[in-house]
Amino acid sequence: MAKPANSSRRGKSRGRSGGASQLYAALDLGTNNCRLLIAEPTRAGGLRVVDSFSQIVTLGEGLANSGHLSEQAMGRAIEALRKCSDKVKKHSNVRTRYIATQACRQATNGKAFLNEVHRKIGLRMETITPKEEAKYALMGSLDLVDPAYDFALVIDIGGGSTELSWIDAKSAAARGVKGCALRPPILGWASFPVGVVTLNDAFTDRAPGWYPRMVEHVGDLLRANDAATRFGPLFRAGRGQLIGNSGTVTSLVGVHLKLDRYVRSLVDGQWLSREDAIATRQRLHDLKPEERAKEGCLTGGRSELMLPGLAILDAIWQTWPADRLRVGDRGLREGILLSMVHGAKGGGQNQKQRGQRGRGPRPSKPPSGEGAAV
């Protein structure tokens, strides 16, 4: 879907006519990561990446126990956001949208933190609802949908929450990107307040049986949702496809492929069988923490949160079973960009016209239907 940009490109992006083309920038501040993507639309309706940034900030560290964002975590996030702001400023004619997710939704000081981001850096950020988060995860994964199935479940495992979207696979393929941006074929969605950071913080006891207890905890949350009874039998009948686009899933595939270092082009679009997923998970489970940290695809602190992420994935796979899972190295940023390009007018703000300083973050809406399929 999104192709790497020529590294020699700087400043203005050249369109087909030779003039500066419209660029789009999406920033996703999650519970664990801060990610930026700058891209331009292609003739085929996809995206061509111009610049990107990703850094683990663990904004939600300790949030499950304290209820608020710590000074250290906010400081790490602000420094990463400053780098993102600097990258956007290098380009002209950029329409932007900057979003925050579960950590800022949950924290008592989440809104105050975003006000501080605006004061210090000038970024106008908004906290999106779980339903919006599920929609953008779907948008970023549309080209992974296989219309041979009747349904698809898009899995987005974050740092502080997990978003699931059940979609009409055939309608998604028929409508295409633009049609789905205007009217996503979502049959149900659910947001669960458990992610790799929050689950890790909740299960600090590493005694034998630690991993099964995490899986059971997440499974109880999933089975309490009516989506388990609505869609579970359909997946058990072989009518459903699983699509995973989170760091947990892409890292799992990288480890399965025995990559010395993570290579997006080798991971994105891969199919992973249930048997291979279980075998790779078991190998990671049996390694000592220092041995997991040496895995080429688990550097930068990812190894510490890998098993909680796999516990969430295991619980999902057990509740909505499928023989294999399609993997995408894309997520909210791509979904936001595609929605800005193909969706309703007025999405995002134009840096060239408004600058990066606005009126401060918009008040977040209360999660509608959180934890329940609709």
How would you describe what is shown here?
The protein is an alpha/beta fold. The protein has two domains: 2-130 and 332-354, ATPase, nucleotide binding domain (Nucleotidyltransferase, domain 5), CATH 3.30.420; 141-327, 2-Layer Sandwich (Nucleotidyltransferase, domain 5), CATH 3.30.420.150. Helix content is 42%, strand content 20%. The chain has helices at residues 63-66, 71-89, 102-106, 110-121, 130-139, 169-182, 196-202, 210-223, 227-236, 247-256, 264-267, 274-286, 289-292, 303-319, 332-342, 351-354, and strands at residues 2-3, 23-29, 33-41, 47-56, 94-100, 125-127, 151-157, 162-168, 186-192, 240-244, 271-273, 324-327, 349-350. The strands form two sheets. Strands 1, 2, 3, 4, 5, 6 and 13 form a seven-stranded mixed beta sheet that branches. Strands 9-8-7-10-12-11 form a six-stranded mixed beta sheet, with helices on both faces. A hairpin with a 5-residue loop joins strand 3 and strand 4 (47-56). Helix 5 (130-139) packs across helix 15 (332-342) and helix 10 (247-256) packs across helix 14 (303-319). The two termini are 29 Å apart.
Helix-strand layout with pairing:
Blueprint: E1 2-3, E2 23-29, E3 33-41, E4 47-56, H1 63-66, H2 71-89, E5 94-100, H3 102-106, H4 110-121, E6 125-127, H5 130-139, E7 151-157, E8 162-168, H6 169-182, E9 186-192, H7 196-202, H8 210-223, H9 227-236, E10 240-244, H10 247-256, H11 264-267, E11 271-273, H12 274-286, H13 289-292, H14 303-319, E12 324-327, H15 332-342, E13 349-350, H16 351-354
Parallel strand pairs: 1-4, 2-5, 5-6, 7-10, 10-12
Antiparallel strand pairs: 2-3, 3-4, 5-13, 7-8, 8-9, 11-12
Helix pairs in contact: 2-4, 5-15, 7-14, 8-14, 10-12, 10-14, 12-14
